[in-house]
Write a structure and sequence with these properties.
single chain; Arc Repressor Mutant, subunit A; Beta-Lactamase; 2 domains; six-stranded antiparallel beta sheet; two-stranded antiparallel ribbon; 11 helices; 8 strands; about 20% strand; globular; IclR family transcriptional regulator; Tscrpt_reg_IclR_C
């Protein structure tokens, strides 16, 4: 199968589209918008190239620029496109009450994330009642598969050849996210997740902030979403973790069953 990188080399104009798409994802991931400098840095572009692309996107209504702060934000056309796509891809209305129930029963912050290519994107956040919270994850935040607990859960239930291909595509994971994300430790964590049923992230992103995640499956049995919980480390101790895991898995199973019965 031809990779996305090789496709961009052979399809005329594909590189410009890929760069513009990367900027759109970065803009949409920030609630208060992004500065030109930060967007250019995160997209791996020069300031002039990023500005040129953002200006073109603004002319199409896909992004906007705050006149007071000069920060780039999502535009009205992006909202209209998202509304049109929601009827096909959005499962938030199916899952919101389940995410809320998970937060109420565990008292921790609960999330629904979806797989998007090699990343997970957070769709829903519901706060738990426990006053100490983790703010690692919120709506729109993206992580590579295998990094946050949601991505670990999804990756662990993909076919072995897909896992192999993913790890070969992303040798940078260890350097960017630390030794625990090297191929060896990653594969061990995936095996542990399959055996346990849910993923455990013991403060690998932010020290002291723990998370657990469980995969949610589509009608064909593919792991396409995940429910997760995050909170302070002491809330995920050995005396409480098994119960949290059982509650999380029960809610993930409920959502998988609902998706299978509704989506066509």
């Amino acid at each position: 199968m031809e990779s996305a990188a090789s496709s961009r080399r052979t399809v005329p104009g594909a590189q410009a589209i890929a760069r513009a798409s990367a900027l759109l994802r970065l803009v949409s991931a920030s609630a208060d918008g992004g500065s030109l400098q930060q967007l250019a840095k995160d997209a791996g572009l020069s300031r002039s190239t990023a500005h040129r692309l953002l200006t073109a996107l603004k002319l199409e209504g896909l992004v906007d620029q705050d006149p007071a702060t000069s920060r780039w934000t999502t535009g009205p056309e992006l909202y209209l496109m998202g509304t049109a796509a929601a009827s096909r891809y959005d499962i938030t209305e199916l899952s919101r009450d389940i995410v809320r129930s998970l937060a109420v029963k565990t008292e921790e912050s609960a999330f629904l994330s979806t797989r998007r290519a090699d990343e997970t994107v957070c769709l829903i956040r519901e706060e738990g009642s426990f006053p100490i919270r983790s703010f690692v994850l919120s709506e729109g935040i993206r992580f590579p598969l295998g990094v946050a607990s949601a991505g670990i859960a999804i990756l662990s239930f993909l076919p072995d050849h897909d896992v192999d291909a993913y790890l070969s595509r992303h040798p940078e994971l260890e350097e960017r996210w630390g030794p625990a994300h090297g191929p060896g430790p990653m594969r061990r964590r995936l095996q542990e997740t399959k055996a346990r049923g849910y993923a455990l992230n013991p403060g690998l992103i932010v020290e002291g902030s723990w998370g657990i995640g469980a995969a949610v499956f589509d009608r064909e049995g593919r792991a396409e979403w995940a429910l997760s919980l995050t909170g302070a480390e002491f809330r995920f101790g050995p005396d409480r973790l098994p119960q949290l895991g059982r509650t999380l898995l029960a809610h993930a199973h409920q959502l998988s069953s609902r998706i299978a019965s509704v989506r066509r």
